[in-house]
Amino acid sequence: MHSQREDAHFFATNRLLASLPPPDYARLRAELEPVRLAKGFVLYDMGDSVRYAYFLTGGMASLLAAAGAHEVVQVAMVGNEGVVGIPAFLRVNVMPYRVTVQLPTTALRIRASVLSAEVGTCGALTDALLRYLHMLVTQITQSAVCNRYHTIEERLCRWLLLSRDRARADVLPLTQETLAHMLGVQRTGVTAAAGSLQRAGLISYRRGKIHVLDARGLRAAACECYRVVSEEIAQFVAA
Predict the structure, then answer these.
(1) pTM of the entire predicted model
(2) Three-state DSSP state, 33
(3) Cβ(102)–Cβ(56) under 8 Å?
(4) Coil vs helix vs strand at 212
């Protein structure tokens, strides 16, 4: 991860920030620092103090809950619709989960103290962050339901579709090992599920990349959790 100067249009690619009224946006922009986030970079681990919030401008980060000493499971995703570092504006200042970059991206980071002060004075920003928090809670809740009741294949379809939406691309640089960690299952389970989807002509997999061949078919094979989460995101962005 490193800072770098960017053109003005770079700042408008985060949908939450772009929804702010121009005066609020301009004031906040002066405090934003562009950074690059590499795939696999751990933004926060569980229990870390939150020094910065990150408004993603693309790619994807995963929120991971611990399922044991060495096991994690994904409970939510963040793309350019939102922000990593919710405790920064809740003034809790302790991260309750691990945050890992799954698809490389750029982000706009802001000091937690600055964001907290802005939330106290900017009604539009507060409203946007609270609506985003509601959407995030919906994701986490749906993930709990999905992990309990749906098959690995259904969950894999949901995860690939949500990743595709964030990446805005049909080719996803994801290994089966990564998918196993995200789904909280053994790699053999992901291999079997991915093989089934590949035989059905929905995806192809080669050299650490998954190519979505049939998004419509993938949606049909996914559980209803994809629809619930994607509609919630769409409502948040449209508001």
Answers:
(1) 0.89
(2) strand
(3) no
(4) strand
